[in-house]
Design a protein that fits this description.
250 residues; Jelly Rolls; six-stranded antiparallel beta sheet; three-stranded antiparallel beta sheet; 26% helix; globular; binds 2-oxoglutaric acid
Amino acid sequence: MADVDIQCCIQQILNDGHCILRGHFPVDAVEACKEAFEPIASAYLAERADNPNRGPNRHYIPLPFRPPFYNPLFFDDDTVFAIASGILGEEMVIDQFASDTPFKGSVNQEIHKDVSELFPENPELRLPPALLAMNWPFVDVTPERGPFQVAAGTHLMPPEEAIAKIDSGEIPLKSLLMQVGDLLIRDPRCLHRGSPNQTDTPRVVAVVSFMRSWYCRRRSDTHPIARSVWECLSEREKRLLKRIAIDESL
Ligand SMILES: O=C(O)CCC(=O)C(=O)O
């Protein structure tokens, strides 16, 4: 934690809408996820390849809360906790663990945010973040592999103004190139899109959502945690993951 300036990361997220921690997770822990994801993706695509849920050849696939995807290195990290709780408060919780994957043949998504405004009747009202998303890629994200593109600072302006500034080129859509081990923490209100993956390497990115303790949304797609995994969690992880159902049979 010594080499990460927590306050600087917090300010980047508040001002730009994201920060990247380079080389934060051990490469072998992430590469284990890449290997374990392959059969999950194959089974998923065998049933749903023709019915993508995030645009052509782009799939959102929930991840199981078991090793190697569940790893205390990802869920019990002091730096991540300090940054996220510095914005959302120490009582924050997690309700989502999944992956976003553009495969070859994916296209530009529409520019969007991932959450609705809390008070849509007042588009001028800008509020601090209620949620943060944490993303880490299972493969290096090159320009050809469909990087996540983000328009910095657009969470701080009314949606119409943000779109106009992107359309005019005043605010660029920046491709976030990342390597295995890098970690993105972002405000999901900041406008973004997935871009086309032109390669045969699926660009898998894990996604975890943190939210303030009072924030509630219905999520039916997050996998439960096996009781045997739950019993090994730290007290901090149990507080973070208390919204996730426990599967007593495992
Ligand atoms: O990972 C990506 O390419 C972006 C995914 C995304 O923003 C979405 O599907 O809502």
